[in-house]
Design goal:
Blueprint lengths: L29 H9 L4 H12 L2 E6 L2 E6 L2 H10 L4 E2 L6 H4 L8 H12 L5 H4 L2 H21 L3 E2 H18 L5 H16 L7 H7 L1 H19 L10 H11 L5 H32 L1 H8 L7 H17 L6 E5 L3 E3 L2 E3 L4 E4 L1 H4 L43 H15 L4 E4 L6 E3 L3 E3 L4 E5 L1
Parallel strand pairs: 2-8
Antiparallel strand pairs: 1-2, 3-5, 4-12, 5-8, 6-7, 9-12, 10-11
Helix pairs in contact: 7-8, 7-17, 8-13, 9-11, 9-13, 11-13, 12-13, 13-14, 13-15, 13-17, 14-15, 15-17
């Protein structure tokens, strides 16, 4: 095993903490990275090799210095939950789309924005959106009933995106999703998919997606103007009205920041949910017994049934976490699992690989929702399962996402079984982990 210290050339960044003594981070050499690049592999393949050869805290050459991969649960906790002030987020690659929204914000601005939105996605705040999520699920169920009657083929991925967009649009505006709005909002997904391949130069990247950005901005302006004018949907005021009210009380919430928060919530509030549900149906197609076990767990509407459906979702998220990789930057010197991390070092925390560690998860590639049927069936170590991140910057919409996936399954799973005529054969590791291509199906009832 080759070793090299991580981040030895990055002394210029960040405030310096007290010097910590520790071992150099083990890592792979440049020739391994060169082989990976020559083979045209995906980043996840390189990261898997780094972990396999060097362990749960390991370095690999990246540019002029080393980047540190973090997959060990204790180290994950240290970075994300225990010391988020030492390991910070920097410029987010989604900033082109979401601007200064809470996903990309940092420092005091992020704290203020997070505090405003936090109450909307926990406890009483979530109860405001229950009936909107249910209405979106009923709309999807009605479409699936029609597909079943006619035998029409449809794309399961598209259906999951349509549902997730409907749920978040109702929650934001009080209005159900119409076809025109749905068409415009495809631009959100188009930009998200394009982000990893856009030019590094910010102006060139913006030019590449200018048309999609213009459509999104026009829709956001219309929604903001309608909300400010007192227009409320059939479901009453939505989360956008909370942002409008904040703008009346806090000068930082100008129209641009309200737009950025709106687009952030649209992007984060539908893409991960849609992808999770698409993966779930693909996994159930390969593991039909898991569907029967979930439906046998209890009567419709019972706590036992809901727990079984949630286990399906959690096992899907274990295999395909909402955020498969979480970049961080060391703001000061630190000791991580006995290894010296210098200020200025970049780190990649990788839920995808932690969730597939055979030392934590027996037969990790196997889809087995029973892991989440009881607490004793999964690892007890904090940091072993974190599909939405952990710590202060964990996903705000965790409870919203789990609720909408469960509600949709309550409506669809007992009635309809998709029969796929083709399934995606590759996986794309971009902002999310998604199937590469459509998933056409008809319904068996």
């Amino acid at each position: 095993m080759e070793t090299e210290a991580a981040g030895t050339s990055r002394r210029e960044a960040g405030p310096r903490g007290p010097r910590t003594e520790g071992r150099p981070v083990p890592g792979i050499g440049g020739e391994a990275v060169a082989r990976w690049r020559a083979g045209g592999g995906q980043l996840v393949e390189l990261l898997a090799e780094v972990r396999e050869r060097c362990g749960g805290v390991a370095a690999f050459p990246h540019g002029a210095a080393a980047t540190v991969l973090v997959t060990d649960p204790q180290a994950v906790q240290h970075v994300l939950a225990q010391h988020p002030d030492r390991y910070v987020k920097r410029s987010h690659r989604a900033r082109l789309l979401v601007g200064d929204g809470v996903l990309a914000a940092t420092g005091d601005a992020w704290k203020r924005q997070r505090r405003l939105l936090q109450s909307q996605f926990t406890g009483p705040g979530m109860r405001r959106y229950e009936h909107r999520i249910t209405a979106a699920a009923r709309t999807t169920a009605a479409r699936w009933d029609a597909y079943a009657r006619t035998g029409e083929s449809f794309d399961v991925g598209y259906e999951m995106r349509r549902f997730a967009l409907d749920a978040i649009w109702r929650s934001l505006t009080g209005h159900p999703l119409d076809d025109t709005t749905a068409d415009v909002l495809t631009s959100v997904g188009a930009i998200a998919e394009a982000l990893p391949t856009l030019p590094e130069d910010a102006a060139s990247a913006r030019d590449a997606v200018a048309e999609d950005l213009a459509r999104i901005d026009a829709l956001a302006r219309h929604a903001i103007d309608a909300a400010r004018g007192g227009e409320a949907g059939a479901d009453g005021p939505g989360l956008l009205h909370v942002l409008i009210q904040a703008g009346a009380e806090r000068p930082e919430y100008d129209d641009r920041l309200i737009r950025d928060e709106l687009v952030t919530l649209l992007a984060a509030g539908h893409e991960t949910t849609a992808t999770t549900l698409t993966w779930l149906y693909l996994l159930l197609d390969r593991n039909p017994g898991a569907r029967e076990q979930a439906l046998a767990a209890g009567q419709e509407g019972s706590a036992e049934r809901r727990q079984a459906l949630q286990a399906l979702v959690h096992e899907t998220l274990r295999l395909y976490p909402s955020a498969w990789i979480l970049p961080r930057h060391a703001a000061e010197d630190d000791l991580l699992g006995g290894f010296a991390i210098e200020a200025g070092t970049d780190l990649l925390v990788c839920p995808y690989l932690t969730h597939r560690d055979p030392e934590l998860w027996p037969e990790p590639e196997r889809f087995d929702p029973r892991r989440f049927a009881a607490p004793d069936n999964r690892p007890a170590r904090p940091g072993a399962y974190f599909p939405f991140g952990i710590g202060p910057r964990a996903c705000l919409g965790l409870q919203f996402a789990l609720r909408e996936t469960t509600v949709l399954l309550e409506h669809l799973l007992p009635v309809h079984t998709p029969v796929f005529s083709a399934v995606p054969t590759r996986t794309v590791y971009g902002i999310t982990v998604r199937p590469d291509g459509p998933a056409p199906a008809t319904l068996r009832t």
